[in-house]
Amino acid sequence: MAHWLQLMAESLPSLLWAGLIFTIPLTLLSFAFGLTLGLATAIGRLFGPTPLSAVARFYVWVIRGTPLLVQLFVIFYGLPSLGILLDAFPAALIGFTLNIGAYSSEIIRAVISSVPKGQWEAAYSIGMSWRQAMSRTILPQAARVAVPPLSNTFISLVKDTSLAAAITVPELFQAAQRIVATTYEPLILYIEAALIYLVLSSVLSQLQVRLERRFARYGGMLEANA
């Protein structure tokens, strides 16, 4: 037991450093880019011309219908056969962005569709353009509904970044694999990595609860004013 505790203490800085330098930036960038892509995809499906809507549906169908790990392999190991060479981190960023974009687009599309049509009519009645109605009336209401599912997507993304180890991104899980290769202690090191992911997910879950409460109060204020 003392040996395991010492090993965990010695490996913890390396694991935390890998998480700080690679896991957290990969998570934040992928979610930010993916959310932007998801919003554009959802709007394209709902309001775009037929060809654009068809492209958006095809993109969502392909990404949601194939495993994330396969998508990462296609980008990192497959594209070089076409002359497209990407470093591990940009390849992982592209893969996670495309994946988050597809899943978040379905969430955003659903919450936008859930806003009553009367809200559109009210916005148009006071002279708003489509863009103004979307940004000032529809999206604020949709955002309140989208917080829980998008927060769950973000928490899942934190854990899914461990798949980037498969394409040589030196994030938290691969750091654990490298230490295992020299210490031959897979059980304790993988448990330690799992505990770090558990702590990150727990902190994010608490932040999600606070965010939901804040949006609930905001929604209550809107209803009271109405």
Question: What do these coordinates show?
Answer:
The protein is flat. The protein has a single domain, classed as Orthogonal Bundle (MetI-like fold), CATH 1.10.3720. With about 230 residues, the chain is mainly alpha-helical. The longest helix is centred in the N-terminal third of the chain and has 46 residues. It is built from eight helices and no strands. The model has no long low-confidence stretch (mean pLDDT about 90).
* Radius of gyration (Å): 21 Å
The number of distinct helices, counting runs of at least 4 residues, comes to: 8
Give the SSE order as H and E letters: HHHHHHHH
Report the CATH superfamily: MetI-like
- Stated plainly, the CATH topology is called MetI-like fold
Strand content: under 5%
Question: Termini separation (Å)?
Answer: 62 Å
Give a short overview:
With 226 residues, this protein is mostly helical.
Question: What layout of secondary structure does this protein have?
Answer:
Layout: H1 2-47, H2 50-64, H3 68-78, H4 88-114, H5 117-125, H6 130-160, H7 172-183, H8 186-225
Features:
226 residues, mainly alpha, MetI-like fold, 8 helices, 85% helix
